[in-house]
Request: fold
Amino acid sequence: MDYLTFIRRTMPQHFRTQELQFLVSGNDRLIRESILQDVVRSCREREERLMIVDDTGAAASVYPEILRSFGYQAVNGMSGEFCLYQPFQLTTVKGISKIRQMLATLEYNEKQKGKLLSYLGFIRHVETLRHGGRDFELDPGTLAEYSTVIAAEEKLQELAEAGILDARQQRLLLAKYAECASAAADFEDMLYILYPFIHGRDIRTEVLRNQALIFPTGELGEDETIRSLVMQLLQFGLEEDRSCRITLLILDKGYGSRRCVLNLLKAVPPHVQMHIFSEDIFTLCDAATLAMVLNRFAVRVYSRHLAMSSAEAIEKACGEIDVVKTTYDVTYDRRWRSNRPWDILLGNNKTETYGTAPPEREPKYRREMIMSFPPGNGIVEFMGNTSVFSF
Reply:
């Protein structure tokens, strides 16, 4: 029986297949590619936009061929052509909170966060004055215009010459700038890192239904900061738009530093359809956090795992069953008169006892079995039920 047949037989009437989110863990390439193909086919049938975070760093991957086979055009989302999210939104508490989260990813402390927010607030106030009092949202180009003290002084001098500021107001704003100007230099370095991801076409509106946006974060190696930044900006962008149907696929290599993958899994908004394909999901985090991650996915598929600890985790996740074992005992009568040829032939020289032992709890699938799965064989778990399947 294949995994889809098992899901259909287990699924209640009110469930729909397209609402299911898949977690696939294991190093069986056949299972991983087959389920990935089914997910992409389902997305194409529903005309959903597709985003793929490829954190594997694999030079030769099969998913571009799968995308092409279903009419998707692969587009690099890290090429600098697309804006993942515009982070400088100071008009709401939510916007300020996201700026603080982004700064935490860039390892800013609380004092640095406060000073930078004050610096951004200063720029926004000056730009609001320059635009006749209309509310003004910051963008990378505007921020670059305030990168030096001389540039800020020139902006204020222009406002004074235009009669918007008097001499006292100009001095006050210069004093305010002096208080937060130390954040400008560090911010310029941060802006250089951010710029490829915060300008260009909006991914929420500019990506066509036949395009698949690829984020090859695995190519960044062990640069955890930029990998985390890309995934965080992508998450922020997905939170902003609830009107369009988007499916997010996460490809995980199963080893190395993957804190950014864990943060993305925990933070993706519920309205986004998400699937993860991992070489070993059980090496991602500790057991308590992993339980929270697993709960995001209705369908969990496990193929062969090489690590004994991961196989043990799957053994526990799949539960136990009651096993009833029979007992057998034989007693021979060694007395001479009970061992005549006729008694031996008829079995009269022995007493056989059959019994049933009390039920014992044993793993439904043993770790040794999980570690030795042949290609194309795995375990599917859905709504508390499990089954072995094969392709």
